[in-house]
Specification:
By secondary structure, the protein is of the alpha+beta class. The protein has three domains: 3-59 and 199-224, Pseudouridine synthase; 64-196, 2-Layer Sandwich (Pseudouridine synthase); 233-297, Archaeosine Trna-guanine Transglycosylase, Chain: A, domain 4 (Roll). It is built from six helices and 17 strands. It has helices at 15-26, 96-103, 127-132, 171-182, 207-215, 240-247, and strands spanning 3-9, 31-33, 42-49, 64-72, 108-112, 121-122, 125-126, 142-155, 158-165, 186-196, 199-200, 235-237, 252-253, 262-267, 271-280, 283-290, 296-297. The strands form three sheets. Strands 1, 2, 3, 4, 5, 8, 9, 10 and 11 form a nine-stranded mixed β-sheet that branches. Strands 12, 13, 14, 15, 16 and 17 form a six-stranded mixed β-sheet that branches. A two-stranded antiparallel ribbon has the order 6-7. α1 packs parallel to α5 (207-215). The longest helix has 12 residues, at 15-26. The two termini are 31 Å apart.
């Protein structure tokens, strides 16, 4: 089965755990996720299956949306509720005005230090593996971009928030840094991802829903319609002759899309058969050909950042 499905990741499972469950449910090996969620977090985990796994490169820099709760009063070593306290707990009674003022420092572009318990690599080793062994974790700050950070509610020592961030932004670090600025410590108490690129929580399905659908032979009904994938990339429906050329790796003339650098090529309404790059004028060549179950042919190409 080739396609994209959004899973509502439950708390307690790693993103890789979800991938393994879906592999077993669908009975196929080619399954991958678009953006890791911490085990304690829930929500949108988009999965690509079969030959569609080759589309992952187009989602490397996808923006993400979250909602969650930050608890003030003490910090933890993991920057979330799963970790051990690193500061002495203190009682706090937050005021909406001070939190609104504090939140303003975490909007736009700024330098952020990733959490020591993260997938960032140090000499090829994930930081969390070193942190678990209590070894020195020396990470460098990175520039992140927070498009929205809205304070939804302030209740005693907890702040409910809504955020939209660029790829590479750690919500846990925002929580930790807010606690440092306020001088009382803080950590991320709850986190739910509500969107990744075009994949939204409204499109998400529980693992038990997918399993039930697979048992009935209708798992495909839960997958995203291919026309809704990569909405920022123009699409064209190829003629039978052009589709045949694309499937065999030959260049084709597509006059209706003369200006687009990359396009999605469909055969019929539902079958996306390739992502093609414009060579010159109206001539396109497929960098990725999606053909047949769990197979993908074509030379491929790398997509630049930005």
């Amino acid at each position: 089965m080739n396609g994209a499905i959004v899973i509502d990741k439950p708390k307690g499972l790693t993103s890789h755990d979800v991938v393994n469950w879906v592999r077993k449910i669908l009975g196929q090996r080619a399954v991958g996720h678009l953006g890791t969620l911490d085990p304690s977090a829930t929500g949108v985990l988009p999965l690509l299956t079969g030959s569609f796994t080759r589309l992952a490169q187009f989602y490397a820099d996808s923006a993400k949306a979250y909602e969650g709760v930050i608890r003030f009063g003490f910090a933890t070593d993991t920057y979330d509720a799963e970790g051990k306290p690193t500061t002495t707990p203190v009682e706090v009674a937050l005021k909406r005005e001070e939190i609104e003022a504090l939140a303003s420092a975490f909007r736009g572009s700024f330098e952020q230090m990733p959490p020591p318990f993260s997938a960032k690599k140090i000499a090829g080793v994930p930081a969390y593996k070193l942190a678990r062994k209590r070894k020195d974790v020396s990470l460098k700050p990175v520039t992140v971009n927070v498009k929205e950070f809205a304070v939804v509610d302030v209740t005693w020592d907890r702040v409910a928030f809504r955020a939209r961030v660029a790829s590479g932004t750690y919500i846990r670090s925002i929580a930790h840094d807010m606690g440092q600025k306020l001088g009382c410590g803080a950590h991320l108490a709850e986190l739910r991802r509500t969107a990744v690129a075009e994949f939204a929580i409204a499109d998400a399905h529980r693992l038990d829903e997918l399993e039930a659908a697979a048992q009935q032979g209708i798992a495909g009904n839960l997958f995203m319609h291919p026309r809704n994938l990569l909405p920022g990339m123009p699409s064209v429906t190829a003629s039978r002759e052009a589709a045949g050329m694309i499937r065999t790796g030959r260049a084709v003339n597509l006059p209706e899309l003369s200006q687009a650098p990359l396009i999605k090529v469909f055969e019929g309404q539902r079958e996306i058969i390739a992502v093609a790059r414009r060579i010159a004028g109206t001539l396109f060549h497929a960098g990725i050909v999606l053909a047949g179950d769990d197979q993908a042919v074509g030379a491929g190409f790398r997509v630049g950042r930005g």
